[in-house]
Design a protein that fits this description.
4 helices, mainly beta, Elongation Factor Tu (Ef-tu), domain 3, six-stranded antiparallel β-barrel
Length: 260
């Protein structure tokens, strides 16, 4: 099964919305009254007057860990294993009712759901632990509410991108967070060897936005592009992708087909 995703990468931010009206005919539904909102109403791209569709695949996975594969020619490749539970289509968002088209997927099993979530997924007949929504150009006919998806969505060699939360490292200083140098420990250091130092001058009498200082390190959403599917194990419901994937083990990873 395939999901059809809206790709806005071709939108040129350097031009005004009015000048972009012609360029956006296939990518964005332009609205002169509210050009900002019109960016969310994606339609199919057009090429020479003919409509084309950008097919992409998507799954909700969990990070298992890293291992290596050895090819016949002896090349060793590091891969990350992602476990895939059965997915169920929970709900459809439509342009007429919600203002955009999307498909909600659920995976894993929850022991207890809130009343609002239980009522939301009642039509699908499942109790998912994880629910994610994916925007689409149009909802495929085979993705009806209650339809199942599994790891066979991807094949070996597919280009993919992964999105997840990086490992949280708590509150960190400037040396660890921004690779600052420490001050020398001799000749009047007075123990201030790891302090950030000056953070501004007398004018404008406040700290400028973006000043690199101590703060929370990690636990932020990161998307890694340019990865490839190295293996698909349907027996164990595991997908292996080349390279590293953000986040700790058992972390939730969104696996999508590459859009660029």
């Amino acid at each position: 099964m395939y999901l059809v995703f809206a790709d806005r990468s071709s939108y040129n931010r350097g031009e005004t919305a009015r000048n972009q009206e012609f360029l956006c005919q296939g990518y964005l539904a332009y609205s002169p009254e509210n050009p900002r909102k019109s960016m969310l109403r994606a339609v199919k791209p057009t090429t020479n007057g003919e409509r084309t569709t950008n097919y992409m695949k998507a799954l909700i996975t969990r990070k298992v860990g890293m291992t290596s594969t050895i090819a016949e020619d002896g090349v060793v490749t590091a891969i990350t294993l992602l476990s895939v539970a059965d997915h169920t289509v929970l709900h459809h968002k439509t342009e007429e009712k919600d203002g955009y088209s999307a498909v909600q997927l659920g995976t894993e099993i929850s022991k207890k759901l809130s009343k609002s979530v239980a009522g939301h997924v009642k039509t699908a007949g499942v109790t998912p632990k994880i629910i994610r929504e994916f925007r689409v150009y149009e909802i495929p006919e085979e993705l009806t509410v209650g339809a199942q998806m599994s790891a066979d969505v991807f094949s070996v060699g597919d280009k993919v991108q992964v999105t997840g939360l990086t490992k949280g490292k708590g509150w960190a200083g400037t040396i660890r967070r921004h690779n600052f140098h420490r001050q020398r420990k001799t000749h009047g250091g007075k123990g201030n060897t790891r302090k950030p130092g000056s953070i501004g001058s007398m004018y404008p009498q406040h700290i400028l936005k973006g000043t690199r200082m101590a703060g929370q390190l990690g636990h932020e959403q990161i998307t890694v592009r340019g990865l490839k599917v190295a293996m698909v194990d349907m027996e164990h419901n595991v997908i292996g992708v080349t390279g590293a994937v953000p986040g700790p083990r058992k972390g939730i990873i969104i696996l999508k087909g590459a859009i660029r």
